[in-house]
Write a structure and sequence with these properties.
The protein is elongated. Helices cover about 80% and strands about 0% of the residues. Helix 1 runs antiparallel to helix 5 and helix 2 runs antiparallel to helix 3. The chain is mainly alpha-helical. The chain has one domain. It is built from seven helices and no strands.
């Protein structure tokens, strides 16, 4: 159970980092951003950060309704990535000078989608382990076998 929770936590952070890298690569494309894309990126980064916090709190506190909210909101996240990849494929023949950057954005987007799907699958696995005692054994400082006691954080 702990390994699954640790994997979820790691994937959560990795998903956020890959998402930020994708946004940086999109912004490196320069002035070709539409108003819709600027608004989407302005809202998307804070949304991703809040989604990261929601996932961590949900896993740590084992709150089942919040995990469902986390999963549903997680289905919204890849929408911009898919949109951007489709738009780049459509414009690939026109853009001759920035092909390397376009390929980098496509690879980063594909990695973002892959990590995101694995994260959502792992969220379901972690959800199934809720209320089986991990929270009490791992994070209760009064428990002698607690991870916090073992780490010296008592």
């Amino acid at each position: 159970m702990y390994r699954q929770s640790a994997a979820f936590s790691t994937l959560l952070k990795f998903d956020f980092q890959v998402g930020v890298s994708f946004v940086v690569l999109v912004l490196e494309q320069g002035v070709n951003l539409t108003t819709l894309e600027i608004v989407t990126l302005s809202v998307g980064l804070p949304f991703s950060f809040l989604w990261l916090i929601l996932g961590w709190i949900t896993m740590r506190k084992e709150i089942k309704p919040l995990m469902w909210i986390f999963i549903v909101l997680g289905l919204v996240g890849p929408a911009y990535v898919i949109y951007k990849i489709v738009m780049l494929f459509e414009n690939l023949k026109e853009e001759q000078s920035e092909k390397l950057l376009i390929y980098a954005v496509i690879v980063a987007g594909a990695l973002e989608l892959l990590v995101h799907v694995i994260l959502l699958i792992q969220a379901v696995v972690v959800y199934r382990n809720f209320k089986k005692g991990l929270k009490e054994r791992a994070f209760d400082p009064t428990e002698q076998t607690s991870l916090l006691v073992a780490a010296g954080r008592r």
